Amino acid sequence: MAAALCCGLLDYKTEKFALTRNRRVGLLHRLLQLAVLGYLLGWVLVVRRGYQDTDAAPHVSVITKMKGVSVTRSKDASSRLWDAVDYASPPQGENVLFLVTNFIATAKQAQGTCPESPSVLDGMCTEDVDCPVGNPVVHGNGIKTGKCVMFNATHSTCEIYGWCPVENNTLPRKPLLAEAENFTLFIKNTVNFTKFNFSKGNTLQTNDPTYFKSCTYDPFFNPSCPVFRIGDVVEAAGETFGDLALLGGSISIRIEWNCDLDQPTARCQPQYSFILVDRRYNFRTASYYWDSQRRPYRSLMKLYGIRFDISVHGQAGKFGIIPAAVSFGTGIAFFGAATVVCDLVLLYLDTKADFYWKEKFEEAKPPKGKTEAAADPQWADQDIRNAQ
Fold first, then answer.
1. Would the annotation count 174 as a binding residue?
2. Which of 153, 177, 253, 309 is the most exposed place for a label (fewest CB within 10 A)?
3. d(CA 223, CA 225)
4. CATH, domain 22-51+322-355, list 1.10.287, 3.30.2320, 3.40.190, 1.10.30
5. 108 annotated ligand binder
């Protein structure tokens, strides 16, 4: 058995070509070849550009700048001017920028005791026992003093030690910085594909110093201008500015670079997309000051606005010998796979499979010499008959 196994391992099989007049298998073979050819030419070479070497990890740089001026007026008829330093955080941002569109102000807060807001559930009370001394108000504004006091004619709340008066929670019905819809956002972006020593920016190379001060981005008529109107960005994200500006929100600005470096450099241009991520966004900030008697005060601001998250993605491709050879080699291997599939159909699924087996597989035996013939009984009998 071991000898037979050893001989089987040392056998060599060579291909034998047998022409079969089987139209069904012949049609299947051509269809498979056409499918492989379509895959190789259409998907690998045209769509995926499999003949190119790629760099999918560019080094990116993003600089943003917000511009615009707005005036807000409070209930006491006082007005306040807002410019980029006031409504943009940080004023000269990078990948993340926040634009104030609405706010609630609580002016002249000082540390002391005052009633908790009735909007805080843990601050409600009916008697002093409901306000244990030293316990912080859950989701509130200070520490309980142990007293239950009247907040107004209808509500009793725990007295707290904190910044007083407590935060105002009356939200304006309309965004106070409605003019922000016409503010502009300048985005300067540069990508560097180090693998090919290639860099490109999204700003138009022009000698006109007033171009960036007068242009506005439009995907069809002015795609090379990096200045975006806020209202247009919100609309492109699928939202109206008035609704989003009231309670704030978050918008993702995605910059996509897909560069074919086998083509002219001018064709390497960014594509912008705008996605609404969230419909609510706010945070608090305060400015501190002291009066003439050195007592500390602060003005608390609850800011609502639009947060812009800017992300840059890209890929560059350029012809390379190795990826081209791999793609073509893969295609040729697929052509061979078509033949294998047709052989399997012919030998296992066809009604004349037994006939094709006999025609395709044949054991080749070399002619025997005299010594081997003498040892073979069949040849020995023939020699005896010849002798007679």
1. no
2. 153
3. 6
4. 1.10.287
5. no
